[in-house]
Amino acid sequence: xxxxxxxxxxxxxxxxxxxxxxxxxxxxxxxxxxxxxxxxxxxxxxxxxxxxxxxxxxxxxxxxxxxxxxxxxxxxxxxxxxxxxxxxxxxxxxxxxxxxxxxxxxxxxxxxxxxxxxxxxxxxxxxxxxxxxxxxxxxxxxxxxxxxxxxxxxxxxxxxxxxxxxxxxxxxxxxxxxxxxxxxxxxxxxxxxxxxxxxxxxxxxxxxxxxxxxxxxxxxxxxxxxxxxxxxxxxxxxxxxxxxxxxxxxxxxxxxxxxxxxxxxxxxxxxxxxxxxxxxxxxxxxxxxxxxxxxxxxxxxxxxxxxxxxxxxxxxxxxxxxxxxxxxxxxxxxxxxxxxxxxxxxxxxxxxxxxxxxxxxxxxxxxxxxxxxx
Length: 374
Fold this sequence. Notes:
This protein is an alpha/beta fold. 70% of the residues lie in helices and 8% in strands. It starts with 10 loop residues before the first strand and ends with a helix. 32% of the residues are buried.
C-alpha cells in the first residue's frame, strides 16, 4: 500500500500522551529497505494504551504491517490497549486480514487414493531406474576388470569369501537341517494316510535340491551378509571414504562392489550344496524316527528321484541369488544418507530389496526351467 511519496528514511517515535503512549510513524517504509524494528518503550509506569498515528508524508508497504503487528503483540502481552483508530482504513484491513491468517490454523490436505497410487508408482519407477543404472555400472565394471584382471582386488575377494562363506556355515547348517525336519514332519502326516511312507525321500530330495536349499541360503545371507554390506558402505559414505576414492580416480564399483558380488556369487552355490546335504539329513532323521524307514532305503529312493538336473537347478538359482544379495547390499549402502540413521535404513532396505528380487528371480526361474523341461 502506498501513501504520499517521502524521501525520509522510515521512522517510528514514541511520545508520552498523558497516561498513554503515542506511536508516530513516518518516512519511507519498504520491505526491501531497512525499516526500524519494534523496541519496547522504557517507561517508569505502564501506559494504559498505545495510540498509533501516521505522519502526513509517508510511503508504506507490508513492512509497516509487520511492524504494527509486532507492536500489537507486545501490547497484548503487556495487557495494554492497542488503539489503531487513527490509521488508514486499508492498513486496518490488512492488519485484520493478517490476524485471521495467523489465528486460523491451516488444515493439512489429506492425500487421496489416486495421489497415493501416483506417489507409489513414481517411487517404483525411481527404484527401478536406480537398480537399472547400478546393474549397468556393475556390467561395465566387470568388462573393464576382465580386460585388466590385475586391477581386480583378489585379496579383498578372498576375505569376503571367507566372511560370507565359511563364517556362515553354522547358521546355514541350523536353518537347513530344521527346514528338512519340518518338511519331513509335514510330509509324514499326509504320506502315512496313503501308505506312501517311502515317498518322503522323493519329496524331501526334490523340494530341498530345487528350491528350499537355495532359497533358505539366500534368506540367511540376505539378513547376514547383505545387511552387513549395506552398513559397511553406508558408514564409508558417511565418513566420506567413498568420496575420497572418487577423488583419487578409483571407481567405487570396481574397488568395493565387484569383489563382494563375486564372493557371494561363488560362495552361495557352495553353501546351497551344503544346505542340500543338511536338509536331506534332516528328512532322513525324521523318516527313521517317525516312519521307521532305514537310511539305506531312504537313500536308494532319494537317488532314484533326484537327478543331476535337479541339483544343477538349485545351484543356478543360488548363484543368481548371491549376485542379487551382493548387488542389493552394495546399492543401498552407496545410496545411504550420511548419518547413523541413514546407515540403519540402508541395512533394512538392503534386506527387503534382496528378498523381493529373489522372489521375482525364483518365479522367473520356475517358468524358464518349466519351458526347458528341467
